[in-house]
Amino acid sequence: MQTLWAERFAQRTQRMKSSAVRELLKLTELPDIISFAGGLPAPEVFPTARFAEAYQAVMDKVGAKALQYSTTEGYSPLRDLIAQHSTRYGIRIEPDNVLITNGSQQALDLIGKVFLNPGDHILVERPTYLGALQAWNAYQAEYITADTDGDGYVVESVKTQMRSGPKFIYALPNFQNPSGVTMSLERRHALIDVADHYGVPILEDDPYGQLRYEDEHLPSLVTLDSQFRSTDGAQYSGNVIYLSTFSKTLAPGIRLGWIIAPVEVIQRLVQAKQGADLHSGTLNQMLAYEVASGGFLDQHVKHIRAVYRERRDTMLAALDAHFPEGVTWTRPKGGLFLWLTFPPHMDATEVLKAAVAEKVAFVPGTSFHADGGGRNTARLNFSNATPEHIDEGVKRLARCLKQLLATP
Amino acid sequence: MQTLWAERFAQRTQRMKSSAVRELLKLTELPDIISFAGGLPAPEVFPTARFAEAYQAVMDKVGAKALQYSTTEGYSPLRDLIAQHSTRYGIRIEPDNVLITNGSQQALDLIGKVFLNPGDHILVERPTYLGALQAWNAYQAEYITADTDGDGYVVESVKTQMRSGPKFIYALPNFQNPSGVTMSLERRHALIDVADHYGVPILEDDPYGQLRYEDEHLPSLVTLDSQFRSTDGAQYSGNVIYLSTFSKTLAPGIRLGWIIAPVEVIQRLVQAKQGADLHSGTLNQMLAYEVASGGFLDQHVKHIRAVYRERRDTMLAALDAHFPEGVTWTRPKGGLFLWLTFPPHMDATEVLKAAVAEKVAFVPGTSFHADGGGRNTARLNFSNATPEHIDEGVKRLARCLKQLLATP
Questions:
Q1: Distance separating alpha carbons of residues B241 and B203, to the nearest angstrom
Q2: Which of A7, A66, A255 minimises the CB distance to B277?
Q3: ipTM, interface predicted TM-score of the complex
Q4: CA-CA distance, B129 to B206, in Å (whole number)?
Q5: In sequence order, which ranges of B205-347 are alpha helices (DSSP H)?
Q6: Is the pTM of this model over 0.80?
Q7: What's phi and psi for A225, nearest 5 deg?
Q8: Residues B266-292: pLDDT tens digits?
Q9: Which residues of B touch A46 (CB under 8 A)?
Q10: What is the mean pLDDT of chain B?
Q11: Residues of chain B predicted below pLDDT 70
Q12: Which domains, ranges and CATH numbers included, belong to chain B?
């Protein structure tokens, strides 16, 4: 018997599918399984000692204020710190351009809340970040997809899709989740150009930008947009909203991300956040500030890079050594993920079933395709397993694949 | 010059007004002002020492796990604790009936996300909680209001409004924000009856239920609904969703509230929360569990009651002693607020202007009226000022009122 509440959501014309990643994460809790499925940072790199000192410092400095309500915009010193960190990449960001969110997932949700009407189109990469689709499905968004290759968005494909009149372009230029691909500098310039030409703004999602393991940092879209407008020395007020997070550089359990946007946009997002949850945790923001300040953040990121670089290298070496012909993969320059492409006739969900029997897990690629494609693709995470487990897990997966390829 | 992003929100057909409370909170930051405007708990009652012990305990027990991603539903021991606390009021709640949210403001937002289509009607009290209206305005809800008196919802008025087909009935039965009114037991029974008769579910918001300063605890609507269905010993699966929070009993800065609902409803809300922010802070949930467990919560609530009872009594005594004839007020049995009614010709916003000049602040009542009424009403908070300040603040306000009443 349905309750009246259950009848009420049956009346709601929405699409909220249970997440494949979510269901799979349950599998990864089984003992003995080596999971490349999640997107978890390695808990070994969390700066727990620094957090303990920060807790003490916060309590000594502000005491009960750390447990009180605080402003929707976020803790001022933390907004300052983020603005300063952003400024060093050659763009003038003031604290008023920064809104603190509960992880960048809430940033995606607030963007949906402020900008989307039911049926609005969003241009996304093929493949794209699953969590963004989950956030915007709640606002009954529709998606149009553009092709990507080893350099990110294929600009000709983006142009073609402009005819559908997207509300905005969603882009993950650095070490994309799920593909691991980085958008080249040329493509970044071209995307800014196209967006300006068609009058469509860009949402840049950059959770992994600091986690680069080779080559030089590339300027973000928000920086390029600022240069494009050549508003020398003026506060940022362009056509790119930029999202990032402390989840991959400090810790995800404190749920702190941020939005950088023109002031008038921030003001609207603040109103939306006020209705959504009043503000982000006061204690968590003060802790993050104490942990990150005094140069610790940069120093700690270097440590994380070293740990994850080794894991990425281990995974790539194991794939090179053990994987059968016909399977290909990306070679990410940073981030947490790489992307497998199986032969066209293979279904990644079938591979997963076999893999779980062999005690190894990953995420099939369809979840990351807004257009339902990607049946023969898969995402592997390399941040959350030790090098030994990565090597062993890849061997297990290679065995599965060889067996499946040998079966007619 | 508008950015493309600003043009985009201009296209969005939404109503998000800047909050009057929000703007007023800025005034309360002025030096020397005695503010009855906010809804802040007294920081003096925050158990900071217990939090410090809890931080140590969490780190000793789970270490880095406290900083990692965690499940959307919430930290299991905390869901257990909430289920057990709820069960003692004579209703069977299992942990599966509990979803942890970022304060109960997020609970209101998730309810909107899962249940509301643009233009849906919600039945609210006149006056009602401003934050609920802010949460649901984002989903383009419409409101219908029913009359209230000193015993809460006037049931005949609720019946009349059922013709407008509300999606649900929103009720704050205990020491309502803003009015301080408590719904009588008879009215609670009658509301359950009417809701069942018309097939409209109830959303019960109960942030202050534990903060009663006189008389006995009254059963919540969710408990009465369970008895009404007389599903003896069965897990709760009725027509009331119940919301509460740790913001008033532990501390608001950790942003932890919860939803109690039938399991199938919780599952839908979990999907919505996953898209909204993945999960609530891991560390905060573990801290709250450590702080609240072992009987501390009940013991601490007794302390808060004693502190706030004195403040309420001080405010009522000062109103009795100093306020001019023609102004009336409620005598709340708990909570944080009482409600003023000025003579019909007075505008509370004009009173506020005069009051701020006298260095005292409150919130005009119109913000709490979904139908735009309440021009001559106001909310006073008594939890966030010391008894001395309360007495002085009421004297200042009385001076203003006498002056305004003397002016023809």
A1: 5
A2: A255
A3: 0.94
A4: 11
A5: 221-228, 263-277, 282-292, 296-322
A6: yes
A7: -60, -40
A8: 999 999 999 999 999 999 999 999 999
A9: 64, 67-68
A10: 93
A11: 1, 12-29, 231
A12: 17-46+298-406 (3.90.1150.10), 65-293 (3.40.640.10)
